[in-house]
# Entry
Amino acid sequence: MVSSVARKELFELRYNKGVLASIAVFAFIFCVINQAGGSDIAVVLLSTMMGMYAAFGISGQAFNSEKLSGSLETMFCGPVELRELWFGKIVGTLVPALAVSYAVGVLVTALAAVRSAPITIGLPAAIYVIAVLPALVAAFIGVMGFIQLNFNARQTRILSTAVLVLIISLLTASLSLPLEGSLISWQAVAVMGAAAALLLTLPALLVNRLSKERIVLTSEA
Amino acid sequence: MKAIEIDHLRKAFGERAVLDDVSLAVEKGDIFAFLGPNGAGKTTTMRIVLGILEPTAGSARVMGEDLASSREARGRTGVLFERHGLYERLTVRENLDHYARLFGLSDRGGRISEVLSEVNLTDRADDRVASLSTGLKRRAGLARALLNRPEVLFLDEPTSGLDPQAQLDFRTAITRLREERGMTVFLNTHNLDEVQRICTRVAILDKGKVLLSGTMDEVRAPGSAEAEVILSSEAEAASAEQRLAADSRVKGIRRKGASLQLELSASLSARELVMWGFDVREFSTSRRSLDDVYFEVLGKGAVA
# Structure
């Protein structure tokens, strides 16, 4: 059931040209104007923040649009549990968001090589990208999904704007880190990994706070 | 077992009571109409029955099951809300395929073709839902609701915003489904004409209370509202007028020659007139329309 829900999210995203174009343009611009040069921190920060930006855009379709259009209410009447819908939507948003993260990582590395400031990605950074980043993005999707399902349209708009401003601020700050070399340490990855493992429990905790009643009633408020 | 049983249902949002002791039963194969003005509590009732909202008190069961907790029972029902519930960016076929997967249907392609044909939408199957008219979207929504061959179908204002032809098509489809499959239909509507045409059972709800419920015949029964009696002579008619004026069932009388026009609050038969010794030549009654009953009940706010 989770895979059927995730499949629909991926399928529908193909047609959501507005979101896809916004993510592509945003990712390209930030990769091109990135000046962090030869540090693997550039790869880690940009791929993380762009993954979250992509998740932000895609989750709007998966959670908020479906809630407001009434299709989520219709789904509640079928043989799907709220928990399955929730995890299906997280998976369906995570897959394309991670694709954006990895594409950004590759692009930043390639552009740095073109600028004659090649980035050396150390093993800790590689482990971060492979193991920690997906957990962080999944937890972020959980938070965004919860905001969109649990609050009414006005509250969601305010909270989403705050999140978007935070993402763009961090992205902008990450552009001018005057660092070089392989700077992601094992200690940093261990700390981030532990944080990610904790954060991964967040979607499971948040879904317990949701109810069909709350979702349907806030779609009309 | 009843198709739908609603037992002493109450629902309050904070201090505001929306449903107050609603009890209803719908038999298998009925087309049940839930009538009432905006804000009467029809959609809230339907949402509780469907397991979306939690009742403050009471219970609702469909085929003996609580839909809130029974995934299997939800798999045997179909729902079409006023908002059709389809994904606008996907085509009709892609939408149906998604739902067919959720319902775990084995022959998805075959069933989708079948249901598209049932609602006469085969030629628009590969169009995006966003490109369809309101009437076609509603038909696509009906196709989705019928995909799993539901035993009970819930419809919330299914014909609102549709043109007369689309309304007729919709009614024809629902009636045919009931006849062919014995499907039970729970219909939330304001459309009295629609109810008179296709429904077998009706309940009228206002301000969260059921004011009247029963089969269409029962609901309209006190309403052999008008009768025309033709007697053998004017003198006979005058005498009958005098006798009938004393009868509590007769709300009004008009005499024209040997003919009497009666306005009734309860049924009156020709046999009674004959037993009273009148020479009745013709006797005909006309039943109250559902409109008469609806406005009378809402006006009184009486509990039946």
